[in-house]
Amino acid sequence: MKKFLVKSSLEIPSNVLLTIRNKIIQVKGIKGKITKKFKFSNITIKKRLNNPRQIEISCFYTKKKEAALVRTIASNIYNMIIGVSRGFVYKLRLVYAHFPININYHHDKQLLEIRNYYGEKRLISFYISRRLQIILSESQDKEISLYSKDIETLFIKTMESIQLLKKQTNVRA
């Protein structure tokens, strides 16, 4: 069954600048800027005339999948707004039972080094993407915090880094 009108609206905070041009959305804030293209559908994205601090995402005479796409685009734009104003954090903890693990991070090379993994003498090192900002926590022992303004970049690059870490730390007999 087709719906006549499906729409969703978002409030833009005062510390964020959002521009819409041909379904290309650019969001600027304290943490930087993010640009995304939403040209794949017949959905209209525009600022409201009576309130320029609100945007409206709508679709006319639509099917169920296109109606779901309206809310998905609204969520993506909301995540862009959160990303440029606050940013996103993913925290990893290194846990050990007997052999204390030592970690070092070289900011200039984006290189993370792990020493004394299972008492091994070899050095495990791998590069982290430049799109992620990494901070080793001093308050929590052996905690790595990954920061990014884009949630999709944070998720994809973090999963790539975790897969690489898992591959590097396989115990060899």
Give short descriptive properties of this protein.
alpha+beta, Outer Surface Protein A, domain 3, 2 helices, 12 strands, 23% helix
Please describe what this structure looks like.
The protein is an alpha+beta fold. It has two domains: 3-85, Ribosomal protein L6 (Outer Surface Protein A, domain 3, Alpha-Beta Complex), CATH 3.90.930.12; 88-168, Ribosomal protein L6 (Outer Surface Protein A, domain 3). The protein has helices at residues 64-85, 151-168, and strands at 3-11, 17-21, 24-29, 32-37, 44-47, 54-62, 88-93, 102-106, 111-115, 124-127, 133-136, 143-148. The protein has a three-stranded antiparallel beta sheet with strand order 1-6-5, with helices on one face. Strands 2-3-4 form a three-stranded antiparallel beta sheet, with helices on one face. A three-stranded antiparallel beta sheet has the order 7-12-11, with helices on one face. A hairpin with a 4-residue loop joins β8 (102-106) and β9. The longest helix is centred in the middle third of the chain and has 22 residues, at 64-85. The protein is elongated. The chain starts with a strand and ends in a 5-residue tail after the last helix. 17% of the residues are buried.
How are the SSEs ordered, and which strands pair?
Blueprint: E1 3-11, E2 17-21, E3 24-29, E4 32-37, E5 44-47, E6 54-62, H1 64-85, E7 88-93, E8 102-106, E9 111-115, E10 124-127, E11 133-136, E12 143-148, H2 151-168
